[in-house]
Specification:
Structural class: alpha+beta
Helix content: 40-55%
Radius of gyration: 28 Å
Shape: elongated
Strand order of the largest sheet: 1-2-3-4
Largest sheet: 4 strands, antiparallel
Oligomer: single chain
Length: about 140
């Protein structure tokens, strides 16, 4: 029996926001170490900031694993190559469109699902306008 199996591992790209957070954390840690020379009892601050640095740097090291086996697509988020969290698991038959978020195929205006939803919404609004009107004397909605 042959199973169709493919796996793709993609590392999250470091953004400018991630770089700024890392720079800020390192800067605050260095400043807190310098503050120890002024206030010797402030030793807890650098220890707490170093722990925060380690925690945040591990949280920013993220990879995504895409696993496709016999029509089932599993997407996992792997943090610091140690912890794995299931983001989503779906049968490919239930998926209408699978594309990158910035793709033109993924824009809401181009998908058939969004077109159908828009058509149903417009149809319901039009039906409400045709079926009911405000009766001037009774001030209630009456069918036409």
């Amino acid at each position: 029996m042959s199973d169709f199996y493919t796996e793709q591992l993609i590392k999250k790209q470091t953004t400018g926001k991630d770089r700024m957070i890392k720079i800020l954390l390192i800067f605050l840690t260095v400043v807190s170490v310098l503050i120890i020379f002024i206030f010797p009892f402030g030793i807890i601050l650098p220890v707490a900031l170093i722990a925060l640095d380690v925690f945040m740097f591990q949280r920013m090291d993220v990879e995504y694993e895409y696993l496709f086996v016999n029509g089932d697509l599993d997407i996992d988020k792997i943090m610091h190559k140690a912890r794995r969290k299931r983001v989503c698991s779906v049968n490919i038959n239930d998926v209408e469109i699978l594309a990158p978020a910035d793709s033109s195929d993924f824009s809401p205006a181009s998908t058939a699902l969004h077109r159908r939803i828009r058509e149903m919404r417009d149809s319901i609004r039009e039906r409400r306008r045709r079926i009911t009107h405000l009766h001037p004397e009774a001030r209630t909605y009456m069918p036409l």
